[in-house]
């Protein structure tokens, strides 16, 4: 199985959509992951809060990293996401995910998004389907 550092490197170099948004996976351990995204001017909507799609994408990406911490390729099956507070006036967003159920085919993760002051701005539960293929094929 790949090491956690190899999984981080793989995810940060092979996920072109996440890279486009500036999402970086910073930590992976067994059943958990952390990541961050710098807020760019293009991410802010007309009311000056970060667009909800950016928050959802960060949560889905880092939830997927936690699910992939077992070394398998995973794809999102569902996401139940709650916007708790507007992300306004923040330069960074941080995500923390942990696996709450690791089944044979479905992995469920709890994900929280915080701003740079540590305030919780969104929370979700995401399900990922195990494709049965190692994340990094030798």
Structure description:
The chain is an alpha+beta fold and 138 residues long. The chain is 24% helix and 45% strand. Strands 1-2-4-5-6-3 form a 6-stranded antiparallel sheet. The relative contact order is 0.21. The model has no long low-confidence stretch (mean pLDDT 96).
Summarize the structure.
This protein is of the alpha+beta class.
The tally of beta strands, per DSSP, is: 6
| Helix percent band | 10-25%
Q: Which residues form runs of ≥5 with pLDDT under 50?
A: none
* Average pLDDT for all residues: 96
Largest sheet: 6 strands, antiparallel
Spatial ordering of strands, largest sheet: 1-2-4-5-6-3
* Rg (CA only): 14 Å
Give the N-terminus to C-terminus distance in angstroms: 10 Å
H/E topology pattern:
HHEEHEEEE
Number of helices: 3
Output the structural class: alpha+beta
What share of the residues does DSSP label as strand, in percent? 35-45%
How does the overall form come out from the CA principal axes?
globular
Features:
single chain, 138 residues, alpha+beta, 6-stranded antiparallel sheet, 45% strand, globular
Topology summary:
Layout: H1 4-14, H2 16-21, E1 23-29, E2 32-38, H3 52-67, E3 72-83, E4 92-102, E5 106-115, E6 120-134
Antiparallel strand pairs: 1-2, 2-4, 3-6, 4-5, 5-6
């Amino acid at each position: 199985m790949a090491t956690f550092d190899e999984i981080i490197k793989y995810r940060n170099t092979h996920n072109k959509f996440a890279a486009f948004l500036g999402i970086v996976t910073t930590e992976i351990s067994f059943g958990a992951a952390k990541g961050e995204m710098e807020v760019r001017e293009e991410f802010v909507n007309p009311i000056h809060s970060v667009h909800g799609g950016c928050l959802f994408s960060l949560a889905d990406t880092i939830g997927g990293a936690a699910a992939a911490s077992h070394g398998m390729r995973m794809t999102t099956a569902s996401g139940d996401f709650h916007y708790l507070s507007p992300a306004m006036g923040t330069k960074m967003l941080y995500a923390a995910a942990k696996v709450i159920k690791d089944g044979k085919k479905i992995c469920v993760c709890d994900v929280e998004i915080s701003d740079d002051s540590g305030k919780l701005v969104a929370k979700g539960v995401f399900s990922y389907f195990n494709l049965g293929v190692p994340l990094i094929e030798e």
